[in-house]
Design a protein that fits this description.
CATH superfamily of the largest domain: HAD superfamily/HAD-like
Strand order of the largest sheet: 3-2-1-4-5-6
Strand content: 5-15%
CATH class of the largest domain: Alpha Beta
CATH topology of the largest domain: Rossmann fold
Number of helices: 10
Radius of gyration: 17 Å
CATH architecture of the largest domain: 3-Layer(aba) Sandwich
Distance between the termini: 10 Å
Mean pLDDT: 94
Number of strands: 6
Largest sheet: 6 strands, parallel
Length: 212
């Protein structure tokens, strides 16, 4: 039986544009300048706390509060996960495979999207990001400490080179989720994932046909 750990942004839903838009909406009035998308994306890895500390450390508390407000208000522009993802997650859960979530998102922000997507009860374990930096390797290892899973039976599904690297560092297989409009396919393939799928349907078919 294959067990599944999923990244969230760019893997479950096309939420990277939402995160960027919310940061700009929240922080630009405080910064009194425009903040380029690339400047925001360069801070990603830590949770949103880390992004705000990097971009606007003198207005951290106000910036964080504004960010959560902006994120919730703008979320209706990105109201659903990627087509086919909900059905795939339902299928995995029905097969009694382990289903976990490991994301760089902070818990408060993630809860907003899980509620909007109707996925609050989907995952058996959820590991979220931390302000201090990238922690997916330690989060994945924590799951193996807490649950009787075999690493050789487990895969991590993510849309960035770091996701692939984190999976391999933990001794598990990596699936490159290359279906988001924001994905850098060349960079993703250069990280040498065990599998690469450019559509949710292709990945879903592989899961259902036990090809992983």
């Amino acid at each position: 039986m294959t067990h599944f750990l999923f990244d969230f942004d760019g893997t479950i839903g096309n939420t990277m544009p939402l995160c960027v838009a919310a940061f700009r909406d929240a922080l630009e009035p405080l910064a009194h300048r425009q903040i380029a998308d690339a400047e925001i994306l360069a801070t990603f890895g830590p949770s949103e706390d880390g992004t705000i500390r990097a971009l606007l450390p003198d207005h951290f508390e106000q910036g964080l509060a504004r960010y959560f407000d902006s994120f919730a208000r703008l979320h209706d522009q990105w109201p659903e996960p990627f087509p086919g993802i909900r059905g795939l997650l339902d299928y995995v859960k029905q097969t009694e495979s382990f289903l976990g979530l490991v994301t760089g998102r902070g818990p408060r922000n993630l809860a907003i999207t899980l509620t909007r997507y109707g996925l609050t009860d989907m995952f058996q374990v959820i590991k979220t990001g931390r302000p201090e930096g990238k922690v997916k390797e330690s989060c994945i290892d924590e799951i193996f400490t807490a649950y009787p899973l075999r690493r050789e039976d487990t895969i991590y599904v993510g849309d960035t080179a770091y996701d692939i690297q984190a999976a391999h560092a933990c001794g598990i297989r990596a699936v490159a989720a290359a279906w988001a409009p924001t994905v850098d396919l060349a960079q993703l393939q250069a990280a040498k994932p065990d599998y690469c799928f450019e559509t949710v349907d292709a990945f879903s078919e592989a899961v259902r046909n036990h090809q992983l």
